[in-house]
Amino acid sequence: MIMICSFLGVCGNNLVCLELNCCKLVKGRILKIISKACLNLEELHLQSCTGASAASFAFLKSLTSLRVLDLYRTLVDTESLVQIMSSCQKLERVNLGACNNNNECSKVLLKMARKCK
Questions:
Q1: Are 31 and 60 in contact (CB under 8 A)?
Q2: Is residue 6 in some structural domain?
């Protein structure tokens, strides 16, 4: 985990796309580092990253340049999704397939619909 933290700290600001699908190292600490070091990210792919807690996905709300967010089969919860949708106004594509912690899907859909106006 130290290597990925170092990499993100040094190179994160230059990244526009980060794909960490199925990465067992992705936990809350990594999401926090991504949210602080990778402010120019336009695409973030976290498919099947099940090591991060539901609430830790809220860190991603600071990635305001995101256009693509892939959270397929993660533990992201409704509250985190609402926060992300509120602050990431450039989002064009979001994958929430198999996200079983999102029990109040209607809240997320309403937030997405308001963003589309």
A1: yes
A2: no
Given strand 93-95, what is the order of strands in its sheet?
A: 17-19, 43-45, 68-70, 93-95
Please compute the mean of the pLDDT values over residues 93-105 and round it to a whole number: 80
Q: 45 is written with which tokens? A: 């792919």
Burial (Cβ within 10 Å: 0-12, 13-18, ≥19) of residue 93:
exposed
Q: Decide if 2 is inside a domain.
A: no
pLDDT exceeds 90 at position 17:
yes
Q: Which domain holds residue 39?
A: 15-115
Provide the pLDDT confidence category of residue 106 given band limits of 50, 70 and 90.
low
Predicted confidence at residue 34, as pLDDT, reads 97
Q: Would residue 1 count as lying in a domain?
A: no
Tell me the mean pLDDT in the region 2-6.
Answer: 87
CATH number, domain of 107, equals 3.80.10.10
